[in-house]
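Ticket reopened. Same input as before:
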Amino acid sequence: MAMLKGTLDPLVLKTLSWTPLHAFEITTWIEDRSDGRVQVDDAALLQALHRLEERRLITAQWGVTENGRRARYYKITQAGRDHLRAESARLVDHLGAVMMILSARTAK
Amino acid sequence: MRRLFRLPLRTRAAVHRDADDELQALIASRIEHLVARGMSPEDARAEALRRLGVPLDEASQQLHHSARHRERRLQIGAFFDDVAQESRYAARTLVRNPGFAGVVAMTLALGIGANTAVFSVIRGVLLRPLPNRDGDRLIYLRQSANGRGASNINFSVPELRDLRSGVPALGGGIAEYSPYGVVLQSDGDATRLTAGLVTGNYFQVMGLAPVLGRLTRPSDDGPGVPPVVVLTYDFWRRRFGGDSGIVGTQVILDGRAATIIGVLQPAPFFPLQMDVLMNMVISPHHIGAAMQNLRAHRMTEAVARLAPGATLAQAETQVLTVYARLQREFPDAYDPKAGFRVAVIPFKQAMSARAQLTLWLLMSTAAFVLIIAAASVANLTLMRNVRREHELVVRASLGAGVGRLRRLLLVENLTISLVGALLGLGVAIGGLPLLVSLTRRYSPRADEIHLDGMVLGFALALAVGVALLLSMVAFLPNEHTLASVSGGGRRSSGGVRKQRLQRGLVVVQVAVSVMLLAGAGLLTRTTMRLSDVPTGLETERVITMSANLFGVNRTQPDAAALTRQHYDRIRDDIAALPGVRRVGIGSIMPLRSPSFFLDITIEGHPLVPGDPMPDGAIYQADPDFFAAAGIPLLDGRPFAATDRDTAPKVVVLNQLLARRLFPGEDPVGKRIQLSTMGGMFSGGWRTIVGVAGNTEDGGPEGEPLPTI
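Engineering reply: fixed in the latest deploy. New output:
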């Protein structure tokens, strides 16, 4: 299913709020948590990471994976956490409203 | 600059490589993951590429772009972070050394303040465009001849008529204007005003607009029209308090009713400030036959506007051509020996000519003050850096590069010089009224002096310039010092070079100071000398006043007698005042430049052909004039009450003229004849009855003028 506009950034930040991860770990985590219902295109994810880094919501550093592969590890910053808190509150509120409208009983 | 702003700059290629590496790593991780779940490597690869969402090339391109964007923004951000941090550090350092910071800021404040103030004058008077529409296309025409007092002899109406028809490059119009003294009468009160008498095209040529009512137009020219008045902005504010209902009011000027038709926008005037501008009908002389028809009757200023597309050079060529033709056609009006010539000058330049030299002199003085200030501050900074060297070395060894240290110093110097500039603006604002009143003596544009955006920019630029300079002279620890520090040595960097620089700075300071002091001293001495020049009369106990007589129609047959009655009454009234010992009346005050020069013929001395006709400046005086002004009489007698009216005509020469006309002879008793183009004073021989001392009427520095 295509991503709802504006939801990718908060999802990525949420993922990183536990621990620093690299791109593949992030996309896997999101997929697992949503039982496979949310799939992010890899190119889109990498661009989102660049964008977040540019806004200084996350920082990046090259590291080595468990399998001995080079990977860019991302870490959330304090500004990122603040942004996540504000943005997820806004998003939850918005989705709640959308749900309320769509689940309203319709005349037959 | 790269060294100054040292940042983790990465090349474009490196950034792209980084982005591609990350992309490949992600694809590889996914393939690995899928293979671990039992997929064949080929299928796993296909699936990984599918999961990109876009073809591989495209994904790579997109990522290059977003990574580049990211790098750029991060670098800028990092720079500002560093600078902010350094500014905080600089502020802390300066607050910890209030003495040093205070001295430096005050020193710079003086230097920057002086320069800002003088620059604001230069901007207002020399640089700012005129308020007139297309003010740079305004032209001032100046006619001059040889000899004293002839550097600007104005134009006659016929001359301007010929220039109008013969110079297409001045197709924007040539307007006449001349200052004219009028008396404004109101209830029990009379004020002398300077009126500019202007032709109807004047305002259109000048490119000026009214703020209220209308301005004069060509239909206001000529004799049969009512006199109308346009108030200048200043006069309107000063005299009428900016009353917006003033238009249509009648005022009494020189005993005649005139209507105020409008108020002019604020504008500078040249050669002198006007109170009001009027059509010419108020002055019988201006619309009279002599003014309108006599080619040598030069009594009006001329301002012109370039035709669209015409250049100053074209206008000049055409004016000179016409002028040469006039000189050929009317030899009577242009005495070839007198060196008549005409100049075509941009109006703005004519207006600022007198101020230019003074202002640039002031500007360079201010610049020298800033040099002294900057040198002092540089020396202070150097000395302080000696004490700070250890700190800087420690910072360097902790990993701050030389560039970074230099930037730290730059930020510090910027902070302090900006504080200096701020204080300097205070100095400038405080000193500006003084400068404006000084400038008023040299330029009609003194009112246009303000601290505007450009002046603020100038102050800012000075502050930045000083900060850069200070950061350049500072010595930073180099590799050699660092090595010596790590080897245990201390404080040794560039000792000889530094001392040489410091000495150099002191030399500059002393040299410039001596120059400034010597200049100021000479100027003061000159001024004192000038006030000590013997003027030829007693200035201490003499007071003067000047009065216009009006109400006497000069064409009346008994005008002369009426005028004399007026003067007699004025003299008697003043003489009756307590404390007044003597009253003398004359046409022009001593020490003022005379306006009329007359040719002189000496009885029994025919003019040798080729010799210039002797001439003298004319002053009219009553019997008590010499005694009241304290001018000594060297020979003969002063005028007597019996010399009036029908008595034989007599003259008193000053010493210079007496010696020039009658070298080695006693002039008393000899007779001379005077002549002028207007016809006044001509006719009949006049007996010389006395010789008076010279007065310095050509300005205290000049030689005395031959005077009658």
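Chain A touches chain B at residues 22-24, 28, 39, 41-44, 46-47, 50-51, 53-54, 56, 65, 67, 69-72 (CB under 8 Å). Helices of chain A lie at 8-16, 23-33, 42-54, 78-102. Please confirm and we'll close it.
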